[in-house]
Amino acid sequence: MSAYVLILDDDADVATAAQLLLRRRYGKVATLCDPAGLPALLAQGVPDVVLLDLNFTPGFIDGAEGLALLDLLRAQPQPPAVIAMTAYADVPLAVEALKRGAGDFITKPWDNARLVAAIDQALARRAALRGPTAAAPDLMGESAAMRELKALIAGVAPTEANVMVLGENGVGKELVARAIHALSRRAAGTLLAVDMGALPESTFESELFGHRKGSFTDAKADRAGRFQAARGGSLFLDEIGNMPLAAQAKLLTALERREVTPIGADKPEAIDVRIISATNLEETRLFDPAVFRPDLLFRLNTIVIRVPPLRERREDIPLLLSHYLTQYALQYERPARNVSPAAMDGLLRYEWPGNVRALRHACERAVILGQGADYALSDFGLPGSGAVDGDDAAPIPARAAAASDMTLDALEREAIASALSQFNGNISHAAKTLGISRAALYRKLGKHGI
Ligand SMILES: Nc1ncnc2c1ncn2[C@@H]1O[C@H](COP(=O)(O)OP(=O)(O)OP(=O)(O)O)[C@@H](O)[C@H]1O
């Protein structure tokens, strides 16, 4: 990650040890042993995090000089997060540092994992302070649940922690993954998405780890795997719960060693990716060792983000409706219309088993097929949403009749939308019904921007 960490310690050995530990993890790690050089260094750029030795001058252990440096750091226009270090487990001094604005403190000799965790947390807090609601602009919703989700994303994004996103079909897990990447220090790198459920076991290693020319019949040239292609960025492993156990073992080895060996290569290659994974598997299934290896789970779910289903944040429905109805009305050049009060009532009460994806498809359908002055509940074509009530206009027009003025492209969209809605957003079932592979369905979803 491209965070800038400064180690301010008069003991050059200590500073170097910390630098060696941290520079593999953070973009820039500088050391400074003479505090007189601090103003000049700050003039060149303020670090994100400073590890500040409080007992700075040898022989002086009251911490006065360290605290003065802390004040100087805190006085910067965009002050760094400061983690105070003390060799003496000097609690009063550490407390004084916390009072003066240090975010955390650790004692020397430090525990490596604790030090890294403290830096990650400091970075997360800084990001959260930048304002969680400004984060994740694509994720719409102002309900308490969505605000909490966005705050969590903003807090977690700048850390290097692997994140597992859980939630039902169509709740927005991929959007969450994209938001995490966009707000992370890897944002300048790529976010590469891999549908783990659609990856055939036979090509699993080649796809993920790459291969060398001639290593098998079809290996006509060297090929980088997804791990190499995402270097410096994030790898989004979608549908992780659908991975066969054998593939899980291979993925685990790569994550444990933090290196992959392309097929036919004699040397492993170090990996530099952050893993964001997602699944719609229920947690009871995910925690079943017969379904998912606990050791792999442990590697992937450092942070778990649960995306709540739409029925648990119904306040977001009007906003999402208005967004998608407007978007599709523009796209299909249809007039802007309101949702009738009765339709709104039905849409608010609907269970939305396919979540936001289903809502989006329902809006598209309503825009294409709706005939009344306002949108009626029946225009949204929700399975089991109940009868059309008094206020609402005509019954749902027959698809065949409406299809005559639709383009082939729009028909394809409509077929995909109704298959997804029929199976509550379940990609595997929808693909089966449409007679195409899951991978092909994903491509079509991308093509239609669904
Ligand atoms: N909060 C939201 N705001 C706006 N659009 C959303 C939101 N959540 C989901 N969507 C839209 O719903 C659709 C499904 O979202 P996404 O692909 O992220 O869901 P998912 O949980 O990854 O689905 P699946 O489990 O089926 O892969 C996308 O079109 C996405 O843009």
From TrEMBL:
Protein name, UniProt field: Response regulator
Pfam families according to UniProt: AAA_lid_14, HTH_8, Response_reg, Sigma54_activat
4-aspartylphosphate, modified sites: 53
Residues spanning the signal sequence: none
Keyword line: ATP-binding, Nucleotide-binding, Phosphoprotein, Transcription, Transcription regulation
Biological processes, Gene Ontology terms: phosphorelay signal transduction system; regulation of DNA-templated transcription
Superkingdom as given in the UniProt entry: Bacteria
